Amino acid sequence: MPSPAIWDVVGIGANSVDYVYRLPAYPEPDGPNAKMRISNHSISCGGQMATALSTCAALGLRAKYIGATGTDDNGRRIRDELARREIDSTDVVIRDVANQFAIILVDEHSGERIVMWDRDERLALRTRELPEELLIATRVLHVDDVDQAAAIAAARIGRQAGVPVTSDIDRITDRTEDLVAAVTIPIFAEHVTPTLTGEADPERALRKIRRRHDGWLCVTLGSRGAVLLDGDRLHHVPAFKVEAVDTTGAGDVFRGAFIYAMLRGHEPADVLRYANAAAGLSCTRLGAMNGVPSADDVQKVMRETPVRK
Question: Alpha-carbon distance 284 to 82, whole Å?
């Protein structure tokens, strides 16, 4: 049996400091978009896990972050931001290197973005640095796929102790299938499942994964919402109709809100609806962690905003 829960959610994974630039169009090597004036720029904290946990905390959950940060100004910036958002980071590892950062180019008309990032390899979280006693003292363990060896080890510890383990699976590597097997609720980015299964259709892809995984299986579909396979029943919930300003971090916000709704005991379709509302709302704001909504904001979207047809 798992230890008594100290936290609602413990997250293991990446953080970043993002330099966000809004542009009047996507840049091109030739023509009128080869040079353009920046419409707006800002610095925002983000990263897959840090943003997901910020969402959990904003919605009222007790959240703890485990990951590596640098000793530079950006490392201090992310630690200060986690503290400001009341996310426990007492077990954060600090390395004497520059923190992960990203340069994000956002099309001001569509809100779609291009992300260019850099991360010193020495920021990788090592398996031996995992505080095992905390991985089972939580209601949910959430991992991303950045430091996969640590994520897989943590997920196996949590799952063996009976702790639900959710995930952010955003890429394909030689360890992706191990990560999927280790967690109880894999949440895939849309581009992952076709490569993983050979099936372009999300439903067919999830049913193929079902042959070797018995938990909830979820795929985020961006402006088309999300799908979740619960046993043999597929739930497809459309996205809310919002005017996107910046889609950075929307998937991370989705996962944080998914965890919140799941812990509230919502049914699968209602979990997706709540997570879609939070993710959609985050797209109306610049930045990843800056786009994290409050519970009141999410409820307002669900009451007043139509879904996409």
Answer: 22
Q: Which helix (H) or strand (E) holds 235?
A: strand 233-237
Q: What is the pLDDT of residues 272-297, one digit of tens each?
A: 999 999 999 999 998 899 999 999 99
Flag whether 28 is in a domain.
Answer: no
Alpha helices in the chain (DSSP H): 48-58, 73-84, 132-135, 148-160, 176-182, 192-197, 202-210, 250-263, 268-282, 295-304
Query: Taking the CA of residue 273 as centre, how many other CA atoms within 13 Å lie in the half-sphere pointing to its CB?
Result: 14
Residues listed for the chain: 309
Domain assignment present for 60: yes
Residues spanned by the domain of 138:
7-14+47-96+125-304
Write the Ramachandran bin of 160: left for phi over 0, alpha for psi from -120 to 50, otherwise beta: alpha
For the chain, give the longest Cα–Cα distance.
63
Between CA 124 and CA 68 the distance in angstroms is 7
Measuring CA to CA, how many Å separate 51 from each of 4, 210, 213, 286? Answer: 26, 28, 27, 13
User: Across all residues in the chain, what is the average pLDDT?
Assistant: 95
